[in-house]
Amino acid sequence: MNIFVFITAFLSVLLTSFAQIALRKTMLSVGSLPSSLAEGIHFCFQLMLNVWFITGMSLYVVSLALWLVVLKKIEVSQAYPLSAMGFLITAGIGYFFLHENLNFLRIIGLLLIVIGIFIISRS
Fold first, then answer.
1. 94 Rama sector, left if φ>0, alpha if ψ -120 to 50, beta otherwise
2. Can you tell me whether residue 27 is helix, strand or coil?
3. How far apart (Å, rounded) are the C-alpha atoms in residues 71 and 80?
């Protein structure tokens, strides 16, 4: 895998991680989930006008375009494990931006993911 492919994959995963954070912010800002069809319709309109939702979905679209470039260059079995970097990125962003919990067991799990990414990238 060359550096261009790795950077493109990393950017795709980074944008997906930011999209997840934006969607979490969406759900924190819209209130409770609907319990009826009428509330559901209102909820959908509320989502479509929410800046966090628009941002998150836009980030997903750009991320998908970048991922397609990656898949054009390398095998999916080599590319897909790189998406595991998203766990690390999302945990870090969640911790610093959303003040989410990052306890010892989560850190150990993240380290195991890093080890797995390293092993797969060497194969």
1. alpha
2. helix
3. 9
pLDDT tens per residue across span 38-75: 888 989 999 999 999 999 999 999 999 999 999 999 99
Q: What is the pTM of this model?
A: 0.83
Nearest to 88 by CA among 25, 3, 16, 34: 16
| Distance, CA of 102 to CA of 109 (rounded, Å) | 11
pLDDT tens digits for range 70-102? 999 999 988 888 888 898 899 999 899 888 899
* Tokens 């390398």 -> residue: 74
> How many helices (H) and strands (E) would you count in the chain?
6, 0
At position 28, the amino acid (one-letter code) is L
